[in-house]
Design brief:
Shape: elongated
Helix content: over 70%
Oligomer: single chain
Number of domains: 2
Structural class: mainly alpha
Length: about 180
């Protein structure tokens, strides 16, 4: 079981971080791109949770698993994927001299100014963005924030996977021919 958890957790984490970094690189001066695209990439990567729970059900359980054991496997895979996401994101930040938040703040301010935000409302947003830049420098702030970005997606996928895969007739285990 531990092997399945680690393998599928790392696969999920690598898919997610590769997709997110690709959108940042492709986005160029708009480093935050689409929030929906980001969560779609996370959902795609967390499909590894479903595959891992199914493999565990089919191999260890002979095609049968109860909800809570399936949920436990799914959450463990989500935890590994989320930790991999956080660690690889930290490596990416280090490789780019921690420029992400300054670029994000700048792009956000520019976009809001283009939408017509001005005066006191703009100054408040600017103050918030500057505070975020300062806070984001601390790994004690940044790492839990990054983890909280991804783990809820894994939690949701784990619950859905456990609910679906507890039914042995849903994608039944293949019997050797």
């Amino acid at each position: 079981m531990a092997r399945i958890i680690i393998i599928y957790g790392l696969i999920g984490g690598l898919i997610i971080i590769a997709g997110i970094i690709a959108t940042i690189v492709i986005g160029g001066d708009r480093p935050h791109g689409s929030v929906w695209l980001g969560y779609l990439i996370m959902l795609l990567g967390m499909a590894a949770v479903f595959m891992g729970v199914k493999q565990h059900r089919d191999q260890a359980g002979g095609g049968v698993i109860r909800f809570f054991p399936a949920l436990g496997v799914g959450l463990a895979i989500s935890l590994i994927a989320s930790l991999a996401y956080v660690l690889i994101w930290e490596a990416y930040l280090a490789a780019t001299n921690y420029e992400f938040m300054a670029q994000y703040a700048s792009a956000t301010l520019e976009a809001r100014r283009a939408e017509g935000l001005s005066g006191e409302a703009y100054r408040q947003l600017e103050t918030q963005m500057n505070q975020m830049i300062v806070q984001y420098r601390s790994p004690w702030f940044r790492m839990p924030l990054t983890f909280a970005e991804i783990f809820p997606v894994g939690l949701l996928v784990s619950i859905v996977s456990a609910a679906l895969l507890r039914n042995s007739r849903f994608l039944p285990a293949r019997t050797p021919a």
